[in-house]
Amino acid sequence: MQDPMLEPLTGVQNSNTGNKGSLKHTPPALARLERLRGVRASYQRATQKQNGKGWLANVPWITWIVTLVTCGLWCITAYQVALHAGAQSWRDVLASVFSNSENGDVLLAFGAKYNPAIIQGQYWRLVTPIFLHANILHLGLNMLNFFILGPIVERIFGHIRFALIYLLTGIASALASFVFAPQEISVGASGAIFGLVGAYSIFILAHRLAFRHGGITALAWLILVIGLNLALGFVIPNVDNYAHVGGLLSGCLLGWFFTPFYRVTIQDGQPVLADAHSLKRRWPLALLTIVLTVLIAIIAIHFVGG
Q1: Which residue, 94, 152, 165, 185, has most beta carbons within 10 Å?
Q2: The domain 26-305 belongs to what CATH superfamily?
Q3: At CB < 8 A and 24+ separation, what contacts does 34-40 make?
Q4: Per-residue pLDDT tens for 216-274?
C-alpha cells in the first residue's frame, strides 16, 4: 500500500542536456544524478519489496494483531465499566458504551499508567497502557489513525521493525507521561501512533529526493498533521501531550536508526540492492536500543520516585 500523498518522481530530468541533445555533465551534476537514481531505487525497493513473496508477506499482520488485541481489551474493559455503572442487561451495556462512559478504577485494574503503582514495582504499566482506551470515541479515533498509517509503515519497515518501533515508542510515550505528567492516569495508543509518524517522517526525509519538489510537500503535510494533533491536545481536556511528544521524538530516533535505505552491494559477483539498516545488519543496535530503554525507565522511576 502506497500513500497517494507521497507520489515519487516518475523520472529524473537532465538539466544539463543542451538543445542538440548532448550530455555534458560536470562532476557535481553527475554525482547528483547518481544520488537521485540511488535514492529513487531505494524508495521503490522499500515500497515494493514484498511483491512476489506470497500473500502472507503482503499482509500487515502485526497491524491486525495489535488492532484485535486493543479492541478485545477495550471490549472487556467497556463491559466492566458498564457493570460498575449498574448495567443489568446487554441493552444497558450498549447504552454505557455509546454514552462514552469510562471508569478510572477499571482502567487502573487493567494496567493504566499510574505513577504510584509503577514506583511500587508494577513496571508492566509502562507497556499495558498502549493497548487500553478510556471509551469508544478514544478507541475509534486511535484505531482509525493506526489502521490508516499502520499498513503503510509495516510494509515499508517490515513486520519486526514495525513491531519494535510501535512497542518502544509506546513505552517511551508512557515514560514521558510518567516523568512530566506524574499526576495523570494515562491510557491509549496515541503515543505509539505518534512514534510511527516520527519513523515514517524520517523515511520520507531520507528519500526526499525521490519525491516531487524535493519532498517539501510530503514533509509539510506530515508537519501539518503532527502540529494539528498536538494543538488539539492543548484544547481538548485530558489529552496527554507529553506522551505524544515522547512517542514522536522516540519514533524519529528509531526511524533514524532503522529506516529502510537500500544501497548497491556486490553479492556473488552481482550488484544487488541491500538494506543498509536492516535488523540483520543492525541487530546489535536494536538490542542496545532495548537495553537503553530499560535503563532510561529505571533512571526515570528512581528520579520520580525519589
Answers
A1: 165
A2: Rhomboid-like (1.20.1540.10)
A3: 35/209, 36/12, 36/209, 36/210, 37/12, 38/263, 38/264, 39/206, 39/207, 39/208, 39/209, 39/210, 40/8, 40/9, 40/12, 40/209, 40/210
A4: 888 888 888 888 888 877 777 778 899 999 999 999 999 999 999 999 887 777 778 89
Measured distance CA(278)–CA(20) in Å, rounded? 44
Is 190 an active-site residue?
A: yes
Q: Which set of grid coordinates corresponds to residue 151?
A: 499498513
Q: Residues, the chain, total?
A: 306
Query: Which one of 42, 173, 190, 201 is the catalytic residue?
Result: 190
pTM for the full predicted model: 0.87
Q: Taking the domains of the chain in order of start, what are their residue ranges? A: 26-305
Catalytic residue among 177, 244, 250, 277: 244
Residue 2 predicted with pLDDT over 70: no
